[in-house]
């Protein structure tokens, strides 16, 4: 019985066992032990094809087909060495793969929330009139400039931002205080200042769309964060283009990757840059202002082109041009003109609201200059007080500064002169504003997280808050004021 079984499987087993015999030899070699081939007794099960080291039922002695020594004699030593090397390499790869899999299984799972940062800043102000008509003095940029006001939290903000993915960036900034309310009501409120996403189309993020509530890309100071701005307030002539600087809409931005880095460096180095708003910006937005309802079907359109040059000596210089157009719906209320109560009328579909502006900045290294000027048309109360119509405007500012770094910190003394003649479209009845103002001050940063600014301001501005029947218009106010601001960054 055994013999017949042996003869029946001999042809198949012989062809299959040649590589098996060779493998046994190689394993012996890799194990570092010389095992004499003739001393190794192997048996194969004719049904399961398994190899055993002892005889049994249905098992045929391997040496009946081919001795190990015979297999060794037929395989060249060079081939054996090559096979041995391959086996070692395979074993090493398997060990490395197992180690990598173990490391990956033990590593914490990545989450987009890990890339989100939380930061913020706050500004405590003190305004003290020292001469002039401080009772009637008022400024749309700072509600703490008014009679019987001293300390005030001008801004208190927290910024949540970060990359959700390689092509989606989010930015959320609430405002915790925006000035006092009148009467017995308590001042301060919570509102959204920014809530947008940047959707990029390429890995370098040179092309992106910003959608949501964000700054209107116009001019320079509008885009410069209050956290980085040198002077107390933005110039009225520019800021009235977009009061609160923001609106709801979508903007396309483009800038080469190395220029995006340059925009960021101009902020991080303390040179008072705007941050990255692209070389080119093209956008559409509601046009009624931050957190205000849209009142017509007309969208504002805006375009901005700017470029930060870097000279061979390391000096940065930026210049650009901006423009926007649309229709704005003003707000009117009853006033008394010539003893007659009148509610100014206007086209309910909106009035022409457009302007073009230029800006140029020689960054303080150490001496710097900054200027903006713009011209246009915007809704404004007519001289007779009966209508609101689109009327011409123009204005801007010039600012000089000097940056000095020493053992006590960073110092930037400055002087800023501004003028404006035109509409205050965001105020009730869109009054005409006549403004001439000079501010002299110094900013001191003893530490990166602390900033103190002291300034003197000579103001000649229109109080746009109250229509005076006896004047058939708004009061022009002149005053001198000392101002201080402590800012902490976190």
From TrEMBL:
SUPFAM superfamilies tied to this protein: Porins
A Pfam family this chain is assigned to: Porin_O_P
Protein name: Phosphate-selective porin
Species, as recorded: Candidatus Nitrotoga arctica
């Amino acid at each position: 019985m055994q013999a017949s079984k042996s003869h029946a499987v001999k042809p198949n087993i012989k062809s299959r066992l040649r590589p098996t015999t060779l493998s046994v030899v190689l394993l012996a070699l890799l194990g570092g032990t010389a095992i004499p081939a003739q001393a190794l007794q192997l048996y194969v099960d004719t049904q399961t094809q398994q190899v055993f080291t002892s005889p049994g039922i249905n098992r045929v002695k391997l040496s009946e087909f081919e001795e190990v020594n015979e297999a060794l004699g037929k395989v060249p030593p060079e081939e054996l060495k090559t096979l041995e090397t391959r086996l070692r390499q395979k074993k090493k790869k398997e060990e490395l793969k197992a180690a990598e899999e173990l490391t990956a299984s033990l590593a914490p799972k990545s989450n987009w929330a890990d890339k989100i940062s939380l930061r913020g800043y706050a500004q405590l102000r003190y305004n003290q009139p020292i001469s002039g008509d401080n009772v009637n003095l008022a400024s749309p940029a700072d509600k703490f400039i008014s009679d019987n006001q001293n300390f005030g939290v001008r801004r208190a903000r927290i910024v949540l931002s970060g990359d959700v993915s390689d092509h989606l960036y989010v930015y959320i900034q609430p405002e915790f205080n925006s000035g006092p309310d009148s009467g017995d009501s308590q001042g301060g409120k919570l509102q959204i200042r920014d809530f947008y996403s940047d959707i990029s189309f390429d890995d370098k993020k040179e092309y992106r769309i910003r959608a949501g509530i964000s700054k209107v890309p116009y001019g320079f100071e509008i885009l410069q964060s209050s956290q980085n701005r040198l002077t107390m307030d933005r110039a009225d002539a520019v800021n009235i283009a977009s009061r609160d600087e923001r609106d709801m809409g979508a903007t396309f931005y483009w800038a080469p990757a190395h220029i995006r880095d340059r925009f960021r460096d101009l902020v991080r180095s303390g040179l008072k840059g705007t941050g990255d708003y692209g070389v080119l910006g093209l956008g559409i937005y509601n046009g009624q202002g931050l957190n205000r309802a849209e009142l017509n079907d007309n969208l504002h359109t805006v375009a901005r082109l700017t470029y930060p040059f870097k000279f061979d000596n390391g000096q940065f210089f930026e210049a650009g041009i901006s423009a926007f157009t649309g229709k704005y719906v003003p707000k009117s209320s009853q006033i008394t003109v010539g003893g007659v109560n009148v509610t100014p009328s206007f086209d309910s579909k909106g009035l022409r609201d457009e302007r073009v502006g230029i800006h140029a900045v020689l960054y303080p290294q150490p001496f710097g200059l900054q200027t903006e000027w713009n011209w246009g048309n915007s809704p404004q109360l007519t001289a007779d007080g009966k209508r609101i119509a689109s009327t011409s405007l123009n204005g801007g500012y010039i600012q000089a500064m000097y940056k000095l770094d020493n053992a006590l910190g960073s110092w930037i003394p400055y002087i800023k002169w501004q003028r404006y003649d035109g509409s205050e479209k965001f105020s009730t009845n869109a009054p005409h504003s006549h403004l001439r103002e000079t501010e002299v001050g110094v900013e001191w940063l003893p530490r990166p997280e602390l900033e103190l600014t002291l300034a003197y301001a000579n103001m000649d501005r229109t109080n746009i808050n109250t229509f005076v029947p006896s004047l058939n218009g708004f009061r022009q106010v002149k005053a001198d004021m000392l101002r201080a601001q402590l800012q902490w960054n976190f």
